[in-house]
Structure formats: C-alpha cells, structure tokens
Design brief:
With about 260 residues, this protein is an alpha/beta fold. It contains 9 helices and 9 strands. The protein binds adenosine-5'-triphosphate. InterPro entries: AAA+_ATPase (IPR003593), ABC_transporter-like_ATP-bd (IPR003439), ABC_transporter-like_CS (IPR017871), ABC_transpr_TagH-like (IPR015860), Bact_Polysacc_Export_ATP-bd (IPR050683).
Length: about 260
C-alpha cells in the first residue's frame, strides 16, 4: 500500500517516532434488528435476542508520525468517527490495540465538558482542567482564550446555559486550541460558529500544524483536508482501502469528473 514519503506540514520537521499507532483494531457494536411488528412481537414473546454484532472496524492498522497531519476519509458509516473515538480513548477496541504519545486533545465535541450552571469564566478553568491544564497554565492563557472566543466581558460572567449553541462551541474551541497538546484530533470542527469564526478556526489549525503538532482529521470537506494534510487514509466498510498521498485519497472518495468533450 502506498504511503506518503513527505508527511506533516511543509515547515514542521517530522520525527520518526510514532505519535499514534493503531494495530489490527476491530470494533463491534451490538445493534438491534427491528423487522416487522409481527416479528418483533414474536421475538418478544419467545424472548429471542434480536441484537447482533455489527463490525464497524475490521482489522485496521496504521501509524502516524509525530508532526504528521493525516486525514481519514470515506463515505457515511465507513468507520471514521469510530476510529477517532478509539484514538481519543472514548471507545476501547474489541481486538487489537491503540497507542498514543504525548498529550492528546480532541476537537470532537467542543465544550462537551461545560457545566451549564457555571459561568463562562468558571467553565474555561473546568474545561482546561479536563484537558490536563493546571490553574497557572490556564491563568496565563485566559485572556487569549477569551479574545479568541469573541465572548464579551458581560457574557463571561453569565451561566453557560444562557449561551447560544454557537457561543458554547466558540468557547469550547477556544479552550481546546489554547491547551498544551501534542496530538490534536479534529472531527468536522471547521463547522463551528459563523463564517468569520470558521475562518479564524481554520487559520488557528494551520498555525498549530505549522508548530509541528500531530493532526488527525476526520472530515468530508476535501478542500479543507487537502490544505491541512499531506496523507490520507480511506476507509470503506471498516477497512483501510488506501493509505497515501492526500490528493489520491481525495480522488478515491470523490473521483474527478471527466472534462466534457468540446
Ligand atoms: N454506538 C454505536 N452503536 C451502534 N452502531 C454504531 C455506533 N457507533 C457507530 N456505529 C455504526 O458503526 C458504523 C461506523 O460509524 P462511524 O460513525 O464511525 O462512521 P463515519 O464514517 O464516521 O460516518 P459519517 O461520515 O456519517 O460520520 C456505522 O454503521 C454506525 O451505524
């Protein structure tokens, strides 16, 4: 299988030490099979278990070097988010193993750790602590976090339950990108907030990549991933069907249309 020889950002020096190793990972989910009402009734009566194992990931393996930025592509249900959740530790594999090196932060569900009854200010400290930051580290970054989020001073001392969903996401994203991380897991995060904020997020992510952070990105936005990553993994039915140059990977998921004849 082809592998990109030049990986990571153009400016970041790549280390040969892997930041992420995914080894022969299998992940299964139990899913319920609802058929007709009659069948559901009969299985209930006979106490039949209508659940069956569904293999979302079927023995996937790859390594990501420190400083590399890699995208996982594939159609809906191919296993991208499941892979991300296994790397972040939210899920555990049924077979195989996953290793990560350094501090891993997920831009998965930004602001997921927010407490609705606490103010924006308190939630910054809470969220940063969840992401492994000390109070002193957060103190030093507090102003930068608030400025990046664009949350006004008056809202900073308001309970987060009064925020709009966009405001919550902005604050969550601002905390996440200001934490001291080595590996950043990014899941369609560039859909956060309004157009101006999305552009700001894009720039911030490019800046982090250029600082040499390892990036693991799941996205359907091929334009964005081509700008951000040099290597792409394509999943199909829970298997890796391609691992190599991002341009080639993007062409697999969205083959270029033939030019119309003149
Ligand atoms: N908690 C769960 N319980 C049951 N099945 C699940 C669960 N999570 C994921 N799946 C199934 O596993 C498969 C892979 O899901 P996953 O979310 O990883 O796909 P994806 O490639 O990220 O899709 P999308 O592009 O739509 O986000 C899907 O068929 C999905 O229905």
């Amino acid at each position: 299988m082809p592998r990109s020889s030049e990986a990571g950002s153009p400016s970041a020096a790549l280390s040969s030490k892997p930041a992420i190793i995914v080894h022969d990972v299998v992940k299964e989910f139990r899913i319920k099979h609802a058929r007709t009402l009659k069948e559901a009734f009969v299985s209930l009566f006979k106490k039949q278990d209508r659940r069956r194992e569904f293999r979302a990931l079927d023995g996937i393996s790859f390594e990501v070097a420190e400083g590399e930025s890699i995208a996982v592509l594939g159609s809906n249900g191919s296993g991208k988010s499941t892979t991300l959740k296994l790397i972040s530790g939210v899920l555990q594999p049924d077979e195989g193993w996953v290793r990560t090196r350094g501090r891993v932060a997920g831009l998965l569900e930004v602001g997921a750790g927010f407490h609705p009854d606490l103010t924006g200010r308190d939630n910054i400290y809470l969220n940063a602590a969840i992401l492994g930051m000390s109070k002193e580290e957060t103190d030093a970054r507090f102003d930068a976090i608030v400025e990046f989020s664009g949350i006004s001073e008056s809202f900073l001392d308001t309970e987060v339950k009064r925020y709009s969903s966009g405001m919550r996401s902005r604050l969550g994203f601002a905390v996440a990108v200001h934490t001291e991380v080595d590996v950043l897991l990014v899941d369609e995060v560039l859909s956060v907030g309004d157009a101006a904020f999305r552009a700001k997020c894009n720039d911030k992510i490019l800046e982090l990549r250029d600082q040499g952070k390892t990036m693991f990105v799941v996205s359907h936005n091929l334009g964005t991933v081509k700008k951000l990553c040099t290597r792409g993994i394509v999943l199909k039915g829970g298997k890796v069907v391609f691992d190599g140059d991002i341009g080639e990977a993007a062409d697999i998921v969205a083959p270029p249309k033939p030019k119309p004849k003149k």
